[in-house]
Amino acid sequence: MIKDLILKMWAEYNHSAYPIVEVNMKGNINSDKEFELFTDEWLKLYEKKRDFVLIFDTRDVGWVSPRYAFMMADFITLLKKRRLVPNLEYLKRACIIVDSWWVKSLLWLIFYLEEPVCPIDYYDNVWDINVECLLEEANRNLVISQKVRIV
């Protein structure tokens, strides 16, 4: 049980502003189990059968093996397959805050391998971003025509 708590530290999901969920990522992924815990928590959001928005803050992510980019692309494929069942398109939008060239490279690889499941706002090199403003913007359900928008 304590091991699972330590593993979950890589990506902490904050549900306090639901339907907006902040995902704060820190450090490195050290095992497939850590990645599995990350995706399991994501899948639990679909179980609520309610629309939601994800805000990923990757500014404190360390080195992550490219292997996990491939696993993430596979996970996106899984999410797309779930769409075949009616009403599983609950993820309306995602915001990704990135400051690391390595994380940018991994994101490029992920979205090269598999197109995102929802519109994405990509915030690049922004250390003074106001997450509260992001939450307000997400609450307004702004429509974005592009799959990935760099802000």
Structural features, described:
With 151 residues, the protein is of the alpha/beta class. The protein has helices at 2-7, 32-47, 67-82, 101-113, 131-139; strands spanning 11-17, 20-27, 52-61, 91-98, 120-124, 148-150. α3 (67-82) packs across α4 (101-113). 24% of the residues are buried.
Quick summary:
The chain has five helices and six strands; from the N terminus they run αββαβαβαβαβ.
- What is the CA-CA span between the terminal residues? 40 Å
Unreliable stretches, pLDDT < 50, 5 or more residues? 1-7, 142-151
Number of helices: 5
Mean pLDDT: 81
Rg calculated over all Cα atoms: 15 Å
| Outline type | globular
Number of strands: 6
Q: Helix/strand/pairing class, anyone?
A: alpha/beta
H/E topology pattern: HEEHEHEHEHE
State the share of residues found in helices, binned by percent.
25-40%
Biggest beta sheet summary? 6 strands, mixed
User: Reading side by side through the largest sheet, how are the strands ordered?
Assistant: 1-2-3-4-5-6
Residues in β-strands, percent: 25-35%
Oligomer classification: single chain
